[in-house]
Amino acid sequence: MRRDEIRVDTVARLKAAAPVLAIVGAADKVWDSRTTELASDEAPGINVLTPRTRWQQATAQGIPIYTRSINMTLECYVSVGQAAADDQAAADAELATAVDILEDTAMEFLLTDPEWVAQFEDVTGIDSNVSLSSDSKGRYGLGRVTFDLVTHHEYNPRVDPAATLDTVAFDTYPDGDTEGTPATEAEIPIEQGP
Fold first, then answer.
1. How far apart are CA 108 and CA 147, in angstroms?
2. Under 8 Å between Cβ of 124 and 150
3. Where are the domains of the chain?
4. Which of 163, 166, 160, 162 is nearest to 192 (CA)?
5. N or C terminus of the chain: which is more exposed, having fewer CB within 10 Å?
6. What are the E-state strand segments in 17-85?
7. pLDDT digits over 2-50, tens only?
8. Which alpha helices (H) appear in the chain, and where do they start and end?
9. Which CATH class is domain 3-154?
10. Model pTM?
11. 137-170: per-residue pLDDT in tens?
């Protein structure tokens, strides 16, 4: 799956999740956007991002197999109005709890969805961090839950479809020593069919 497909699929699943909707209030409060740092009046809500992809060669033998690790982030927004924000300590405690509940609900929903998890070969890590901020409308909390989603991709060499394989070459090395001189070399012709 491409990064955009992962985001769209994740958003669709979260929009249909009753536990998530019970917190955010409506399906249009879960979206896929490159915009971050939303205003407090847009909370509560969840924005799904895929800000980073890392490719690593999976084998040392030069076989074109790569491990792709995608960071998918759920930005979970909650807020309290200006009146509640006047007591900052109480507002911060309320926000921290609300962010934790929204993060945990969304994360648990995805990780217990066997179809969502099966799209990836592994979920190698989950990180979370929370920040609290203010704007003219009140105080809001932002929790970022980032999943490391892993898939493997094999890239086969491009071969001319008109080409035919007429020989196969073999080299054998003593005791697995592939750096030295081959102990034997062989080239075997392949008979072509009628």
1. 12
2. yes
3. 3-154
4. 166
5. C
6. 30-32, 45-57, 65-81
7. 888 999 999 999 999 999 999 999 998 898 876 665 655 678 999 999 8
8. 3-15, 18-24, 82-85, 88-111, 114-118
9. alpha beta
10. 0.72
11. 777 888 899 999 998 877 666 667 677 777 777 7
